[in-house]
Amino acid sequence: MGEEEDASRRPIASRSSSWAIGMSAWLARTGVTPNSISLFSILFAGIGAALILFTTHPIAMVCAAISVQMRLVCNLLDGMVAIEGGKKTKSGAIYNEFPDRIADSLLLVAAGYACGFAWLGWLAALFAALTAYIRVFGGAVGLPQDFSGIMAKQRRMAVLTAGLVAQSLETLISASHWSLIFASVIIAAGSFVTCITRTISLNRSLESL
């Protein structure tokens, strides 16, 4: 998450967890800005992508999975520091969206190359970006942003995390990359379906105005 209005804020259950509240409150008391937290999500995604691309060691796959989750933690905390911590800035809308698109692309494209199907990684990244485009477009025409769909950001990253952990186990017994292949296929297909369902919902909402 980034700095955003409540109407365009992704509903996240962990936002009400004690660790998230405590961590965001601590960060708000420091000199850390929400925008810098957003940028750190790219850093973690870059680390994860590098681990996926340049090594097949089981521990590296687990570390890549941790990097994916750290990226999501940054996405959670930047919005909490901005809104609950009172550090929202006018440029926050940029940092709310742009780092997410970069982080998604780094991780999904890396997974595609690592499993031997670069086009699959690019396809997953394209559909992931389109899900966000459709959501933001809805907000641009005056509708509440639609975070629904079978493969919204948290689910994409959950599938990728599971794929990386499974790949770490697969690497112990085989040189294949079926875990990453399956994860990439699920993400690409699910994101495509999400694009369709969000577009249908958007069209219906506009027609009902």
UniProtKB/TrEMBL annotation:
- Give the transmembrane region(s): 39-68, 106-136, 181-200
Q: Does the keyword DNA repair apply?
A: no
Which species expresses this protein natively? Rhizobium vallis
Which GO molecular function terms does the record list? transferase activity
The family database entries (Gene3D superfamilies) matched by this protein are listed as: 1.20.120.1760
Write down the superkingdom of origin. Bacteria
Protein name from the UniProt record: CDP-alcohol phosphatidyltransferase family protein
- Keywords per UniProt: Membrane, Transferase, Transmembrane, Transmembrane helix
